[in-house]
Write a structure and sequence with these properties.
By secondary structure, this protein is an alpha/beta fold. It has a domain of 182 residues: TIM Barrel, CATH 3.20.20. The protein contains eleven helices and nine strands. The strands form two sheets. A six-stranded parallel beta sheet has the order 1-5-6-7-8-9. The longest helix has 26 residues.
């Protein structure tokens, strides 16, 4: 295959060079999202399959790789969930104990044992996971629909429990020291929702994840795209050690206002 024909997998600039990035293929999300950083990264054949037919994540959702944007997305228009109240009946939570952690630990031993810290990545957070199930519009509306709010709290709590189990496996198998948690909360010009909505609907589950990471001596990095200046108090309240934002945010204002409460990082600096 000619060099010009190769598909380049997405690699986040938000991962510092003094950390080993880890998003192992044992988690189907990392294959579906074409974000597989471990001893055995995705092959060109797998990347082409991802672009043509896609791969399913750990909840059975199909993602298609878009080479031009170096990322994967769920094709909109056929959500697996239309009302969050149905999540227990519709959403098949994975049994991560059935994954071959022993083999993943063995095969990645040299990859993670470099003397550097290991930065494990969870790509699809709480709101983004809801979007992958419902499409964006319905997911955003569900956050403010009083008839779905209780169910959202239930499913986000279940997700937090799942992510905590995965984090514990990451510690056991790879000796991670840092967790990067991806959950985009905004667009180029404004957040997707208000600070009050984040505090009511997302904060309880996010706090649970952050608190567990700290109980295991992990640094917690929030990777949340968008012009999210007004949401920074939520990152702080949740206990996030750092937030990687984007250049459209007013960094001077943020440093003066919040610099003593959270590490503020920016993609273009990394």
């Amino acid at each position: 295959m000619a060099e010009s024909e190769k598909i380049r997998p997405y690699f986040s600039r938000s991962i510092r060079r003094d950390m080993v990035p880890l998003s192992p293929r044992i988690d189907p999300d990392n294959i579906a999202r074409c974000f597989c950083h471990e001893a055995n990264p995705l092959s060109q054949e797998e990347l082409h399959h991802a672009a043509q037919k896609g791969y399913r994540d750990k909840f059975g959702v199909l993602w298609i790789y878009i080479p031009q944007s170096e990322g994967s997305m769920v094709r909109p228009g056929s959500p697996i969930l239309t009302n969050v109240n149905d999540w227990k009946r519709v959403i098949p939570f994975p049994d991560i104990e059935a994954w071959d952690w022993e083999e993943s630990k063995r095969s990645n031993a040299d990859y993670v044992n470099t003397g550097k810290g290991v930065n494990a990545i969870i790509l699809t957070g709480l709101f983004e996971r809801l979007v992958s199930w419902m499409d964006f519009g319905d997911a955003a509306m569900a956050l403010i629909d009083k008839d779905q709010k209780d169910a959202i709290h239930e499913v986000f709590d279940a997700l937090a429990g799942l992510y905590i189990k995965i984090i514990d496996k990451f510690i056991w198998a790879y000796g991670i020291s840092r967790l990067s948690f991806h959950d985009d909360w905004g667009g180029q010009h404004a957040p997707f929702f208000s600070l009050a909505t984040v505090e009511e609907m997302i904060m309880p589950a996010l706090k649970k994840i952050v608190s567990h990471c700290h109980s295991r001596d992990l640094f917690f990095n929030m990777r949340s795209c968008g012009k999210n200046e007004i949401l920074v108090p939520a990152y702080i309240e949740a206990g996030c050690d750092s937030w990687i934002g984007q250049p459209m945010n007013d960094r001077k204002m943020l440093y003066h206002k919040y610099g003593g409460k959270i590490i503020l990082d920016y993609e273009e600096d990394l």
